[in-house]
Amino acid sequence: MNNDKMLVGVLEQCSLPELGIFDLKVRIDTGAQTSSLHVDNIKTIKKNGKPWVTFDIHPDIYHVEDVVSTTAKLIDIRWVKSSNGTRQQRYVVSTPIKLGGRSWSIQITLTDRSDMTYLMLLGREAMQGQLLVDPSASFLCGNED
C-alpha cells in the first residue's frame, strides 16, 4: 500500500464490506474524534462466549425499506459526546472501510443518527495516517465499486 495520505473532500462514498454495506455516503468530520454509523435494533448476543452485536442498517436514506441486518464483534462500550452536547454510551465495533481504492480497519460507534443528513460520520481516529481533508471539495475519491 502507498504510504501517501489520500486527499478527500467533506463528503465521500465508502463501503463497509464486512458489514454488507456498499456505496454509502459518508461525512468526513475532523471535528469528531470517533466515527459513527446510524443503526437500528441493536442487540447484544454471545458467539463462542464473546460479546457481539446484531443491528440493522438502512444504507439508502431514499429507500428506508431496504434493510441490511448484520453482526459484528463488540470491542468496546464507550461514552461519546454527541453533536448536540449530550453524552451517551455507545457500542463500538471494528471493521474494514474501503475508500478511494484503499482499505483499512476503523472503529465505529453505533448510534441513532436518524436526525442527521448522513448515516455515517468518519472521525479523526479513522482518518489518522490515511487521509487529508480538503474542506472545499466533495467526492474526490469517486465511487467504490
UniProtKB/TrEMBL annotation:
Pfam families: Zn_protease. Residues 8-140 form the Retropepsin-like aspartic endopeptidase domain. This is Ribosomal protein S6 modification protein.
